[in-house]
């Protein structure tokens, strides 16, 4: 009888199976950033940023109000640049304090840029926020990685972050990036209190038990992401049982 029901309603079976497949490949299952590793560096949290194939690994240390980050992204062209910035006074590039990775004689370096406006971008030796432990690297896939620690004003529980990629560098200065939708949407809010990981424009950070970020290290993991995965797996297992019952009867 079960076989006969299936043969009579193949369209129903295909529709139900499509639902299962869509749920299984849902991005809520896991974060791509959790598989990324850095030599001698661990971070409390990571997030798949919403645009430009970018990722942020980070630890917030409440004891000295500092943020340790590893920002990873591919430049839009092989000789291009990637940048990560915070803005204490706005949500866009204007007013941002930026760290930009680019090649210098085939070696990836980090430079600091103060962005007063879209037409006033200057390289500087000192940003409006204190930074230290700056370095950069690249991998075999063409990604650049910016490592840094940033002092955050103690009164802030969150900061506005902006990230960007560009096609080329001229005389040590990053060329203008594209203005596609992905570039224009490359911004969000980084929470510094809650301890969990997420994707999208809004990201959440580590709690007050973080270790000092001056060496970019921590022993915690993305526990919240793991809990979300467990809940999703349980839900989908129940859905499999329900669909199996529907097909049999």
Description:
There is one protein chain. By secondary structure, the protein is α+β, with helices and mostly antiparallel strands. It has four helices and 14 strands. Strands 7-6-5-4-10-13-14 form a seven-stranded mixed beta sheet, with no helix packed on it. The chain has a five-stranded antiparallel beta sheet with strand order 1-2-3-9-8, with no helix packed on it. The protein has a two-stranded antiparallel ribbon with strand order 11-12. Helix 2 packs antiparallel against helix 4. Its main location: membrane. Pfam families: DUF568. This is DOMON domain-containing protein.
Helix share, percent: 10-25%
Spatial separation of the terminal alpha carbons = 8 Å
**So what's the overall shape?**
globular
How many strands in all? 14
In the CATH hierarchy, the architecture of the largest domain is: Sandwich
Output the radius of gyration: 22 Å
Q: What is the CATH topology assignment of the largest domain?
A: Immunoglobulin-like
Strand neighbour order, sheet with most strands: 7-6-5-4-10-13-14
String of helices and strands: HHEEEEEEEEEEEEHEEH
- Summed over residues and divided by their number, the pLDDT gives a mean of 77
Output the structural class.
alpha+beta
Largest sheet properties: 7 strands, mixed
Helix segment count? 4
Beta-strand percent range? 25-35%
For the record, what CATH class of the largest domain applies? Mainly Beta
Q: What is the total domain count?
A: 2
**Which blocks of ≥5 consecutive residues have pLDDT under 50?**
19-29, 199-249
